[in-house]
Amino acid sequence: MSDDAAPEWQIKTWLNTAQPVTLASLRGRVVFAVAFQMLCPGCVSEGLPQAQRARAMFPEHDLAVIGLHTVFEHHEAQGTEAALKAFLHEYRIGFPVGIDMPNPDYPLPKTMQAYGMRGTPTTLLFDRRGRLRVHQFGHLDDMQLGAALARLIESDKAFGNKAAAPGKDGGCCTVEGVCS
User: Fold this and answer.
1) How far apart are CA 164 and CA 5, in angstroms?
2) Are 96 and 67 in contact (CB under 8 A)?
3) pTM for the model
4) pLDDT at 104
């Protein structure tokens, strides 16, 4: 991964936070972002619960957990802010969630496109300097995620250029319209 700061998220609306959240505003903290759709089986069963567990396990001054609602399918069913608010309430998601900016010229929303995401859930880990260190379609095994987060929190070097271990793709939804 690059030593440059990752591109800023392009967010239409933020939920569960009084102010918009930017990568720049999170500098000094490790960031675990999960890109999800509320109708994605892997997001509901794996990605979001894992984000909630990470938020509970690590101190907030070290780790920021962020949700990125990246809708690329079933827009009528999950593309409204009211539907997402109800979903977040029902699943007790309390961390900040940004609604990825739709792109009128392209089927994928802007942040999803900028990061080259293949589908949902997607796990993104950023070091304290805002550099993307892990970009994984699917979720990481809990032990792998915990180890990666601990290394990022404890080290300003944030694992250099090592690649992330393979994640689990089960229950993921791809931009090609395939849910496994």
Assistant:
1) 18
2) yes
3) 0.84
4) 87
